[in-house]
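Below is how a single chain appears once it has passed through the pipeline. First comes the sequence as given, then the structure the pipeline wrote out for it. We keep one example in the README because the format questions we get most often are answered faster by looking than by reading.
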Amino acid sequence: MDFHEVSLVSTNKHDFDLEVVLRALRMSQLGGTDVSIPHYLQAYAELCRFFKLTGRLFGFVAKDLEGKMYVIQNKLDDDHMHLNYTSVKQMAAFEINNADLSSKSKSFVGCRALLRLHWALEFIVEFMNKLKDASDHDKTSVIASEVYSKTLSRHHPWITRKLAAMAVHLLPSRIELISVMCKQDNQHVLKLLGEVVIEGKRVYDMVESILYNNHLLHIP
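Resulting structure:
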């Protein structure tokens, strides 16, 4: 799946498919030490579908994430560049070796975009982790607000944090959220959530390690 498909994803209800996310996350893991960028983006394409289905809540987040995905996908679509962007390690090594020290804004384009996706993945995985352990009638608005404040909000400007704080109250209970948005039934979704959290944490930790080892965790 490339970004041109991603930008045309359906936002019909009952459309979010956790099995797609789980499969892509598993396929993205390369020997436990590297991450396949095409499969990482495939997982994110489906996760963006979830953000869009929440409506106003994280629709603005989905738009931002798609922009970052587009940046990386452009590199993959470039016949002269794509071999340097097939995995996170390859991308990091290539952009470090080809950094333009006179223009930081033109350097680390792919890694900068990946870092923003990486930040959001922390929120997604933790939100799903809390969601699977909640009761059917727990308010997902409370869960999302608590997780957002501990994760993604650290990287957002004040205005974005205010928008999130206002919009989060629109989220329904857990059982309503699953019923309205997810392709699978409630029990299947809860099982899948546990598996997605496990695989998502593995992918997150691998990307975190690669970025840390290459001093790329604080790209402005």
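The longest strand covers residues 29-30.

See the next section for the split statistics.
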